[in-house]
Specification:
166 residues; mainly alpha; two-stranded antiparallel sheet; 6 helices; 2 strands; 70% helix; elongated
């Protein structure tokens, strides 16, 4: 991929991740399992929200680390295309994967709804409005990142193997 394209992709990726971080962090700072289960204190609700918050914390950390790495790349006087491609590969496999395949499976993407104009995210348990809204609001960022970084899902590593690098 040409260096100019990689630099532009690095900049847009950093912007989208920053936007997601700026939405996730206040949510995590303002809500706890106790607050989220105030209306429904059953075992299913407790389990759901513990997993939900855990997945969001992981996503936040992966995204913040990636924003920092992308920032370092962009601040350097000479843009390092090889390192940028490796970081974009990591963004795809850590951030995008953490969003679409959360460890606790509190929500998932149902592709059948992607073309209907409805939300493609389906929750395992009906969350409170705020929890639902945070996932739906950041989903656009991660969907765009998935589309833009799809090259790095497979082709990047294939290219590296063909060049004899790891």
């Amino acid at each position: 991929m040409p260096s100019a394209n990689v630099k532009t992709l690095t900049e847009t990726t950093q912007t989208k991740l920053k936007d997601a971080v700026n939405q996730i962090e206040p949510f995590l700072n303002n809500y706890s399992v106790v607050q989220l289960t105030s209306n429904d204190n059953g075992e299913d609700a407790q389990t759901f929200y513990k997993g939900f918050l855990s997945d969001l914390r992981h996503l936040l950390v992966f995204s913040e680390v990636s924003v920092e790495k992308l920032g370092v790349l962009l601040r350097r006087p000479n843009f390092d295309t090889d390192y940028a491609e490796r970081v974009l590969y990591e963004v795809y496999h850590q951030c995008v994967s953490a969003f679409f395949y959360p460890k606790n499976e509190c929500y998932s993407e149902d592709g059948r709804y992607a073309y209907t104009g409805q939300d493609a995210i389906r929750f395992r348990y009906k969350p409170i409005r705020e929890a639902r809204e945070i996932i739906l609001s950041i989903s656009k960022n991660y969907e765009e990142l998935r589309d833009e970084l799809a090259y790095y899902e497979n082709d990047y590593m294939t290219q590296r193997r063909m060049q004899g690098q790891k």
